[in-house]
Amino acid sequence: MSRFTRTRRVFFLEEPVFENTTPHLRSVVCPQTGVRVETPVLPHGLNGQQVTEHQRHFLHELIRREKIANYIAWFYTPMSLEFASDLRPEVTVYDCMDELSAFAGAPPQMHANEATLFERADLVFTGGASLFESKRKQHASVHLFPSSVDVAHFAKARTTDREPDDQSHLGHPRLGYAGVIDERMDLELIRGLSAERPDWQIVLLGPVVKINPDTLPQAPNLHYLGMKAYADLPAYFSGWDIGMLPFALNQSTRFISPTKTPEYLAAGLPVISTPIRDVVSPYGDLGLVRIASGTGEFVRAADSLLQSPPDMDFRARVDRFLSQSSWDKTWSEMNQLMDDTLTLKNAPLNFRHPAAGAAKAAAEGASHV
Length: 369
Prior knowledge:
The protein has 13 helices and 15 strands. α9 (260-266) links the parallel β12 and β13 (271-273). 33% of the residues lie in helices and 17% in strands. It folds into two domains: 4-148 and 327-368, Rossmann fold (3-Layer(aba) Sandwich); 151-322, 3-Layer(aba) Sandwich (Rossmann fold), CATH 3.40.50.2000. The longest helix has 20 residues, at 327-346. Mean pLDDT is 90; it is low at 352-369.
């Protein structure tokens, strides 16, 4: 979204937060990027319908206040249709980064809302090859955009010599994970690694979501350090010996394409992952990530990497691969598709042709909802 601010206004409508206050819309402009973050602030005790009505009201209030006339509606979740169904954008984008209906606690109306969003969307972007294969059967214009990476940001880990205080005192070797800790995590694998190698320090960064924290394995060598700012991740990665992707193989991980894979690699870390399809191909097939099933294989892979850390040839191969995975490249290709879509929709009927492509988003403003 920060890249879209180069040519458009970008309004990012957040999930509501609940406080002891009257309903209002909290507006913050990111000083680094210019992205305008709009957060509905609602009182406690509202039912679902009341929350939806407030979100609808604030969305239309935002459009009136900012005089947004020609805009793109960008959906990260079909559930946003609950309050944004009456929008009339010039172009609608569905940025489908995961199979949200497979997550624990997914709303029952998720499937119906996604079907409606497929009908309305001009473009569908998917975040991984397996998700692309699933969604391409449901829409005429589905495009694959695997996880990109800000190489320069994470490459700071290769030269950083000062670690964050809550990690610097831990011994080595260290295996680390960064991301949401939820039902997608293989907690038995974490427990097994901790028990098999009590001398290994296992660092887990990220919030615990949708699972009971009491179910997390506990041991002296397991360190849950909580959620960290994006800017601080390279400093944490700099102190790790191995980056982990310890995901369970279940419905919620069937279509995931972990963003942390290229981020770990950009940081110079060797990486071990369970056999998640979008990690096996391409990373495992290219020899950039070790693939391991179960505690035994994971321990053997880690032992091997600790004994023979990545050399300069390996890092050169990683860097060549990552050079094709920048966010600038992803943004440029997405932007072109949106420009082409709008050009096609605005063309006279007798000039329209499927080969023409797909959106020229007018400079007036892009509404990200």
